[in-house]
Amino acid sequence: MKINMKVLKWVLLGLYIAIIIGLLGMSYRHGESLNGKLFWPLFILVVTVLSQALLIFGAGTVNLCTPIRPRRLVLPVIVAAVMMTVLVAALCHSLAELLYLDDIDWIVYVFWIIVGLSWILWSIVFFIMYRDTERYKTLRNLVATLIAGSLIELLVAIPSHIIVIRRPGCFVGLMTACGIIGGIFVMLWAFGPGIILLFLREKRKAELLRNGKVE
């Protein structure tokens, strides 16, 4: 049975919005105080939406088939590098608890050094890889990389959590749980731009036809 993409993209968008609203509602119910119930969930939601918009619309949605200019590539690269750094940080949290590194005093400094270097390195890698790539493919590849990265991070974080929670102690599994949350957050984050790309896909096809190109 052939899937109707025009219907599917609206279904996926509706499901995505429903998931976000559901998570926001759960955060509200479990808030500690009335004044603080919605502040942090709304703050995270606003930051998430703005960063997603910067990734997609920062690169531009006109002339999707032409190579993206370097100055228009800066914002998407910065945002994607931040999300990859979140995955690296989540992975470090999981491995630190799994390997008993969380009890070492200087490991905190190493963690922040890794986080800083990760953001710089991912920014450089993304910029070099996609500076001559057409706009739509650049966005698609960035989103695909984030989804793949989140899956890899979860493949490490989830087994680590299962192992760690079997250890004695009051706060065991806390850091690996943070690792799982980080992986899920980036995956959900990447699904948003991924759904927007489904809407831009038809526009790109129309541009290809106008230019006499077939893919």
What does this structure look like?
With 215 residues, this protein is an all-alpha fold. The protein has one domain. The chain contains 6 helices and no strands. Helix 3 runs antiparallel to helix 4 and helix 5 packs antiparallel against helix 6. 29% of the residues are buried.
Compile the SSE list and pairings.
Blueprint (H helix, E strand, L loop, with lengths): L4 H25 L9 H21 L10 H29 L8 H24 L4 H30 L9 H37 L5
Helix pairs in contact: 1-6, 2-3, 2-6, 3-4, 3-5, 3-6, 5-6
Q: How would you describe the shape?
A: globular
Largest sheet at a glance? Answer: none
Instruction: Supply the number of structural domains.
Output: 1
* Assembly of the depicted chains: single chain
Mean of the pLDDT scores?
A: 86
Q: Indicate the structural class.
A: mainly alpha
pLDDT < 50 stretches: none
Short description:
This protein has six helices and no strands. By secondary structure, it is mainly α.
What distinguishing features does this structure have?
single chain, 215 residues, mainly alpha
